[in-house]
From TrEMBL:
Secretion signal, residue range per the UniProt entry: 1-26
The UniProt record lists the keyword Signal: yes
Sorted UniProt keywords: Signal
Top-level taxon in the UniProt lineage: Eukaryota
Phylogenetic classification of the source organism: Eukaryota, Viridiplantae, Streptophyta, Embryophyta, Tracheophyta
Keyword Signal attached: yes
Organism: Vigna mungo (Black gram)
Family: Belongs to the peptidase S10 family.
GO MF annotation terms: serine-type carboxypeptidase activity
Protein name (database record): Uncharacterized protein
GO biological process: proteolysis
Length: 132
């Protein structure tokens, strides 16, 4: 048997063995998931939360500062390095604690069509950050 044939057989053997590694890993994951599901079932924990979602109105007795002109001040005309877009986008800070100077950064994009009836998605980022 030549050197090339030996290398080929060795490579083929390694390739064949490599197919079994993901299979074993997947089997372990499946076994772990099944174990979790069985333990939840026997403890009476439902796999799916089927409770009805209830909207609650939260009224905070906080001080609301004037919002006049803030929307236009937060409008983003164009993001650096990005093409011009046909929708309005806003970014800025929502004050959480004025005394401590804490605020969330938000990024908001209006829908291109039917913006008054489509759902709202608002991205808040931050936490214990200082307002600029």
């Amino acid at each position: 048997m030549g050197k090339a044939s030996t290398s080929c057989v060795l490579l083929l053997s390694l390739l064949t063995l490599s197919f079994f590694v993901p299979k074993t890993s997947a089997n372990k994951q499946l076994q772990t998931l099944n174990k979790l599901q069985k333990s939840m079932f026997f403890r009476g924990i439902s796999q799916t939360d089927r409770s009805e979602f209830e909207v609650e109105e939260v009224v905070l007795d906080g001080i609301v500062d004037s919002q006049k002109g803030l929307k236009e001040n937060d409008r983003i005309g164009k993001l650096p390095g990005q093409p011009q877009v046909s929708f309005s986008q806003y970014g800025g800070y929502v004050t959480v604690d004025k005394v401590a100077g804490r605020a969330f950064y938000y990024y908001f994009v209006e829908a291109q069509r039917s913006k008054h009836t489509l759902p709202l998605l608002l991205w808040l980022n931050g936490g214990n950050q200082q307002q600029p």
